[in-house]
Amino acid sequence: MSGADIREFSRPMTGPALVPLIDAIEAGEKPVVAAIEGMALGGGLELALGCHYRIAHSKAQLGLPEVTLGLIPAAGGTQRLPRLIGFPAALDMIITGRRVSAGDALKLGIVDQVTERNAGEVAVAFARSVVDCPLVSRRLSTWPPLCPADLDNILQMALARAWQRGRGALAPVACVQAVQAARLPYSQGMQQEQKLMSMLFASPQARALQYCFFSQRAVGKWSMPNGACWDNSTARPIRKAAVIGLGTMGRGIAVCLVLAGIPVIAMETDEKQLEAARRVVMALLEKEVQKLAVGLHLGLIHFTLEQRYLREVDLVIEAVFEDLALKKQLFAELSSVCHPDTLLCTNTSQLDVDQLATATSRPDLVVGMHFFAPANKIKLLEVVFTSRSSPEAVATAMQLGKWLGKVSVAVANCPGFVGNRMLRPYVEQAGFLLEEGATPEQVDSALEHFGLAMGVFRMSDLSGLDVGWRVRKAAGLTGPGVPQGQLLQTQQGYRYSPLADLICQKGRLGQKTGCGWYLYEGPGGHMARPDPWVHAFLEEYRRVHGLQPRSIGQQEVLERCLFALINEGFRVLEDRIVMDPVALDVIYVLGYGWPAHTGGPMYYAGEVGLPRVLGRLEYYQRVHPDIPHLRPSALLRQLVAKGSPPIHKWMWHIEEGSSRL
Ligand SMILES: CCCCCCCCCCCCCC(=O)CC(=O)SCCNC(=O)CCNC(=O)[C@H](O)C(C)(C)COP(=O)(O)OP(=O)(O)OC[C@H]1O[C@@H](n2cnc3c(N)ncnc32)[C@H](O)[C@@H]1OP(=O)(O)O
Ligand SMILES: NC(=O)C1=CN([C@@H]2O[C@H](COP(=O)(O)OP(=O)(O)OC[C@H]3O[C@@H](n4cnc5c(N)ncnc54)[C@H](O)[C@@H]3O)[C@@H](O)[C@H]2O)C=CC1
User: Fold this and answer.
1) The pTM is what?
2) Between the CA of residue 657 and those of 169, 569, 574, 575, what are the distances in Å?
3) Which of the ligands is closest to the CA of residue 423?
4) Domain range for 497
5) Does residue 488 carry a pLDDT above 60?
């Protein structure tokens, strides 16, 4: 039982109320034993907690995930669980919403017995054995709260953690407040639980998080402009895969494949690189084995320099340097080495997948599988299809992503695909704001206050500033042969900020070199500190270019950066790079640290109001006519003209034939 039907939350509810039902079961005179197979989540676990005994199958999972939907467990979960397992463990489960295995549930004391057999049959036998036992001590609501001496401290720390993890989300904080009320007699605690639930239930954050829940499932029902889709295309089985290039990304991808039980051929260019990769990959795998307490066959991965092993694989994921010529050459080689049916996938973050497909003997079997760093942690996968990708190839990549535990989103090929394409105007605005008077920490603090996991400059330092530098060089925007612009730098006719290039020229590439937009403890350090050098550098830059610095408020930072990103999102929709705006929201929430409690950038635009987004873009465009990314997209204008329809109707307003495919 995975809890309430979440769809019901936006409709009038019918049927008996859960709280009195659970109370009645608990108060009953006959012993009630919960037999748990599969999932006991949310209301499912709350129901089980109202039973007098709980027997779980060893594969069962238990949890109170309401916080991920912007809610609290409000059918007594916040009152019974702390009584059963104590405040610290209950707080941890309720604030994070994480699931625990049956084995861990037994250790915590949530279940009375774990079985390998049919839980229902075991529960019936168990019920017979306790039929005459008194039930008084089995009613959790009557238990006195287990208050340790340092409970105040525990609650304070939990509150601090909820604020920090929540990044502006209300539900984690309300979870702590509800659990705190478990110190009170049960009936008073329940009143508090209901009060907090009423506050959250109809909140915009809960609506946004529930939208995220369904969006992450909706993207699994992918379709392509040619009519191929999830239910008319068959995925191939992947019995063995290869990863070529074991740098930052390749290592993480190899780990994902092994954890999913897929045998992997892992390839590098030379013995030294191979050995370095082997050490890191094996260490990551051993850590996972310990953490998950699972048996994993570490022999599933074979490190090699020899291409002949590629003959046996069903799918290759290429993760070599971001260099089109290198990748094309590799894809041509793969065509002759691999079996003709082998799928060839690239992890490129922005190169033209069509061009790579052209370099092979099988363009229909070429797709992008764009993982996000760290690949073994981030749940997002962009599956990039070209005009020639076969439905089978797309279905296989989508299915493989799911098997690896990712949420896969199918997107059409275009520069930067979806995520990085929308990121460009956002990063660009941040650079302009520095020119106009802001500091990196002012910009980042506004964005992090909004709820982004990391501000733009901290994120750039983490990824490495050389990544974008290489892209800009390849695009002809900077580099030795490119003439410098005039007063305010212009390139290719538009405003261009060379600040990031200048920073790179100084050897400041971010965390890896110990400095970038911030200063770190040393190369590879993580603690970002404001850097007086950067401040002086910005002042000097403005002086040389005659720029009068001005004070820039939080609102302008948010509007310039976020609305520019959203505007590009509308252009992505116009180009039909995806079939539905929910895809953009899923990509940003899962891949770029966008706060889930705002739903994602496109949902957020709808909440702010499309007329407001349009109005502010028009305003900034008047002030900065030389920044094309601030020019409102045609689709945004059209939607506003049509009275701002809800997000699920946006695609109806795109003219036929606007697809780039
Ligand atoms: C104004 C005054 C108001 C006053 C207060 C009102 C008080 C109201 C009191 C209400 C008290 C109710 C308490 C309660 O019961 C709270 C809850 O239980 S909230 C729900 C908690 N449960 C969850 O969050 C579980 C969500 N589901 C999952 O985590 C996964 O789906 C699951 C692990 C169960 C299965 O995963 P998987 O096998 O990977 O399948 P999918 O995820 O793809 O799901 C398949 C399919 O099922 C749909 N679905 C799953 N769970 C739910 C659900 N709980 N409700 C509705 N639909 C669900 C999912 O969307 C998929 O559908 P498709 O159409 O196939 O995409
Ligand atoms: N680093 C990131 O955050 C992300 C990178 N990507 C993309 O993933 C790809 C790899 O990026 P990183 O892992 O960051 O690069 P990296 O520089 O860390 O690793 C690349 C690896 O490829 C190896 N290599 C080069 N040529 C090879 C060949 N012919 N055969 C076998 N191995 C070869 C190199 O020795 C190196 O170890 C790029 O296309 C990049 O754009 C995609 C998403 C995120």
Assistant:
1) 0.95
2) 40, 18, 10, 9
3) 2
4) 463-544
5) no
